[in-house]
Amino acid sequence: MINKLKKYIPIVAALSLILFASCGEGEPASPEDRVLVKIGDEAITVKEFRRNYETGFGHLKTGEDRKRSYLGWMIKEKLLALEGYNLGFHESENVRNAEAQLLNELIIEELVDVEVKSKIKISEADIREAINKSKVSFKFRYWTESNAERAEWIAAAMQERGYAEVSGELMENNPEWQIRPQDLETDYISWMETPPEVMNAIQELPIGEVSDPVEINGEYTIFQVLDIRRSGVLDTEYKSKASQFEQIVYYRRVQAAVKQYVADLLTPKNIVTKGDSFTMLLRALQEWRRNAETQPGNFLLAVKSATAEYPEMSRLHENFDKALVTHNDGAIPIGEFLEGLNLSYIMEGSKDGKRTLRDVVNDAVALGIRDHFMRQEARSKGLDKSPGIYKELGLWRDKWVYSETRQHFGRGISLPDSAVRAFFEENKNRYKIRKDDVLDFERLANRARADAVGMARNSYLVNKADSLATIYPVKINEAILDTITVYDSKKSRWSSLQLFKAGTSRFAHPYADPQWER
To answer: What whole-number distance in Å separates Cα of residue 230 and Cα of residue 296?
Structure first.
């Protein structure tokens, strides 16, 4: 029973991978699609520049004309990417794998955009109600059990003898849980910080009363509201906060609607995961992780190339035609399922040691099943042919090809010890934490070498990109650049805000590489 309130958050996070809205969505299509820069046969549009700049890295925005300095780095990346295509880097394993994974995600996003997001409308009354609700905050306790019968027994005891007494006894009798009463008590939180399922359970509960167990996501939680705070709403807030609360209400509605859409899509299919196939997959993943230093970083590739030295991965490969999932209309073979499985989720989710690999793989397979049928539904509606999908895919492909090109041209750059020492002497201030620090080169030599080589690499790559402009001519539309208005932080010219696709470690969209300025 080490469950905490945040246990409910992963359910939202699991869905949020397909909920993210791109910056600039809803802006007039024509002005935003104007070509700002032509680089050979490639182009950077106003929309691409704006969303890249506004959430890009602040240290790349320098000088009197911050827009131009940032645009310069975007242009250099396009030039290097064009040369990368010329060298065939778009055919590399890394790029192909990344492209296949992203295409899977974009197809699902398109389905959600068309079937869910486009149908949600927020009224002024909805916004006013949300602002009013934000002025009510709850402070409560909770206790979660995985077994319904045990939860009923505990709830009855709490209702008779009090939450604190019963929970205290349970914690004292189970010290291995390593939890304290305050771990299961919230601060004052409003509906905005509370999962909807939890808010539904507590909003009508009288202060001090212990609830019956409430089933949420397959577990049973007992609540006790300790206090409720209410404050008034100023008339001006209905106007000043309208935009903020419109977005909050919208994404709450989207989350609920996507959850319902997925349930309606999957429930009739009678989906079953085959236990023996799941165990085979789990053992192969365990073997891959144990031998990470000698195996390809891509699990599917490691399985396909596994020799007899790796029996679990070899066995999985031999059984690619075996069903991992069955449903009313047939089955999904192991090999086909692995093509669309997000293995980064598996590896990231089990690194902290708080969850077993089995639990993480189980969740990943559940998400993989969801994604498989959502992609299938999208394709049946022809949504996989959407031009927007391939536009976004192209932007990311350019970014990945640029990265491959950067590695290719920067790989052989090295510096003698004398040059590293000279760099250190000229840039000592960057290594000082306090003014009176005594800096020892020998102690900081590795860091100084990395910085010096990085700067030398950047200098080489800048010159390389500039030279490529003779092959791929660059033409900036100065009139358009002058008219573009962008958001810049008023607090710090160096501040930046990067957006990530929820549920992944990938940026929401490509940004100029922060390595350009070291």
So the answer is: 57
